[in-house]
Amino acid sequence: MRRRMLSLLCFAVFGSALALGQDIRNDRQDLRQDRRDLRHDQVDRRQDRRDIRSDRRDVRQDLRNGDYRDARRDQRDIRNDRRDLRSDRRDIRHDRIDKHTDRRDLRHDYGRRG
């Protein structure tokens, strides 16, 4: 009876330790993924800003030359780039929140361990 109870207790302790280790590993991986997403969103945001500057320059050039059709097309491109910029800003905000949550979870998991 004692041996069975001891083996069940050991099984529970080792099982919870393995689960905790897996939880820490998942939190680390999720934190790396959030950092990678954040970097990609920031690069995409810089590219959208660059595109907006270029399209504004094209609109001015088209208006100077009297090419109103191309100017409208460039203005439509600017609207699309601004929409992408807002979307990237929203993604960056969510990635930062996720990163903060993952850090907190990781600190909590290490606190439980130590």
Structure explained in plain terms:
This protein is an all-alpha fold and 114 residues long. The chain has a domain at 44-114. It has helices at residues 2-65, 68-113. It is rod-shaped, with a radius of gyration of 26 Å. The model has no long low-confidence stretch (mean pLDDT 83).
List the helices and strands and how they pair.
Blueprint: H1 2-65, H2 68-113
Report the count of strand segments. Answer: 0
pLDDT < 50 stretches: none
The CA-CA distance between the termini, in Å, is 32 Å
Q: What is the tally of helical segments? A: 2
Largest sheet: none
* Element-level helix/strand string: HH
Strand content: under 5%
Overall shape: it is rod-shaped
Decide which structural class fits the backbone.
mainly alpha
Average pLDDT number: 83
Indicate the percent of residues in helices.
over 70%
The whole-angstrom Rg is 26 Å
Keywords:
114 residues, rod-shaped
In summary, what is this structure?
The chain is built from two helices and no strands. By secondary structure, it is mostly helical.
